[in-house]
């Protein structure tokens, strides 16, 4: 199997093995923590959840990334990325444990969200650091394969963490606090795993490192402007288009995520427990789609080119999400979730590759942080739009059609850009 062979080749790189271990533990903990939050906010029997409540929770947890993200990028281009992985996971371990205590204490919702926000805000540093560090542990020839397997393996670890969270919740008598404590332990393990790497291994280069926080924050605006100019310069225009396309696809993903949550909670389930089981099945199917993307994308992107593969992913999603989403039945819904996982992750792998290949090492941290900001703003905006459009049971043909149109527009625009780019070469 090609994916197994590629992974075997990459695992010969010691730095890659150790960075992958940190990613798997960190994103596995993310999966545990996120499922605990989702079940606490959406599926607690005593809570009457609405699409507006789901969107509000997403806004509280994700919108502050718009402030944290740019500074994360600037700091990642100054601080040693190994240290970011170490201290970031330590902080998350402590804050996740605090979240578990708050769940048991039944404190006001705003205090719970503040604690959860601290965990997820640090996540921007860790994920951006993992992406920016990847070219430091593999050679250029294998970067596409590494971009396919490493982030996808992390996503699969998150799905596995989510499955583990469901299992712990059943064993621990529906205790979301126990699940969060498991996430805290995994964050601690990720921090310890980062110690296996030398502090200077992941970059940036020594001359770029400015340890003083005050100096780094003061220069944030200037450096971000330089980063955006770097991204928009003619040699890197393909990366800018790929980022724009991926942002719109993320918007679609966010809208459909809220719809699936509401369908699992009310539209296709008779009670919260049945809805939770359906959501768990949907997560498993989505994980299979992400794995399929890891298998297919290296071959497809190598044959078509990353930009054309994004076109194929967006175009396929436009047609299939419309056909499978409109019946609003469990079978077609699960098929749509599979397609969503495959096309979203396939396009993301291609986008990561384009950005990493085009952006110089000294700019990668801030560009990937901007990437994360675009992702989260698009996701929250989509959740807000979905909250306005969705009825209580989650069945909205208008939303499904609108998402299909956006996917089709992305495919057409990216195809036109690629034709123009090739014709001018």
Q: Distance between the terminal alpha carbons, to the nearest Å?
A: 36 Å
Number of helical segments with 4 or more residues: 16
Tell me, rounded to a whole number, the average pLDDT: 84
The third-level CATH topology is Growth Hormone, Chain: A
Can you characterise this structure?
This protein has 16 helices and no strands. The chain has 425 residues and is mainly alpha-helical. The protein has a single domain, classed as MFS general substrate transporter like domains (Growth Hormone, Chain: A), CATH 1.20.1250.20. The radius of gyration is 21 Å and the shape is globular. The mean pLDDT is 84.
Question: What descriptors fit this protein?
Answer:
16 helices, Growth Hormone, Chain: A, globular, 425 residues
């Amino acid at each position: 199997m090609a994916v197994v062979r590629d992974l075997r080749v990459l695992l010969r790189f010691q730095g890659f093995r150790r960075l992958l271990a940190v990613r798997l533990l960190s994103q596995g903990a993310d999966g545990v923590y996120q499922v605990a939050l989702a079940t606490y906010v959406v599926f607690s029997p005593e809570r009457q959840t609405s699409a507006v409540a789901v969107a509000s929770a997403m806004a509280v947890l994700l919108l502050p990334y718009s402030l944290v993200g740019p500074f994360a990028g600037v700091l990642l281009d100054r601080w040693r990325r190994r240290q970011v992985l170490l201290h970031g996971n330590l902080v998350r371990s402590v804050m996740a444990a605090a979240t578990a205590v708050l769940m048991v204490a039944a404190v006001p919702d705003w205090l719970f969200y503040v604690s959860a926000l601290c965990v997820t805000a640090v996540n921007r540093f860790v994920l951006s650091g993992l992406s920016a560090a990847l070219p430091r542990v593999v050679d250029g020839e294998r970067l596409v394969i590494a971009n396919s397997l490493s982030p996808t393996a992390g996503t699969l670890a998150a799905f596995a963490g989510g499955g583990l969270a469901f299992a712990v919740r059943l064993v621990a008598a529906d205790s979301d606090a126990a699940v969060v404590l498991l996430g805290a332990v995994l964050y601690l393990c990720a921090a310890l795993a980062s110690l296996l790497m030398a502090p200077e291994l992941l970059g940036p280069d020594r001359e770029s490192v400015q340890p003083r926080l005050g100096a780094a924050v003061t220069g944030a605006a200037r450096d971000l402007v330089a980063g955006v100019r770097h991204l928009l310069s003619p040699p890197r225009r393909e990366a800018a288009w790929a980022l724009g396309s991926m942002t719109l696809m993320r918007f679609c993903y966010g809208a459909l995520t809220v719809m699936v949550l509401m369908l699992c909670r009310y539209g296709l389930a008779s009670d919260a427990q049945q809805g939770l089981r359906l959501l768990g099945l949907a997560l498993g199917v989505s994980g299979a789609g992400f794995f399929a993307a890891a298998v297919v994308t290296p071959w497809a992107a190598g044959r078509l080119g990353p930009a054309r593969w994004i076109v194929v992913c967006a175009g396929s999603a436009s047609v299939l999400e419309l056909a499978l989403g409109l019946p609003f039945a469990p079978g077609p819904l699960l098929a749509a979730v599979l397609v969503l996982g495959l096309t979203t992750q396939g396009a993301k792998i291609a986008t990561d590759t384009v950005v990493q290949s085009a952006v110089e090492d000294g700019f990668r941290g801030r560009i990937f942080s901007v990437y994360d900001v675009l992702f989260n703003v698009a996701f929250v905006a989509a959740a807000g739009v979905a909250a306005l459009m969705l009825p209580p049971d989650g069945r909205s043909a208008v939303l499904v059609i609108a998402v299909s149109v956006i996917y089709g527009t992305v495919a057409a625009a990216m195809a036109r850009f690629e034709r123009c780019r090739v014709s001018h070469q």
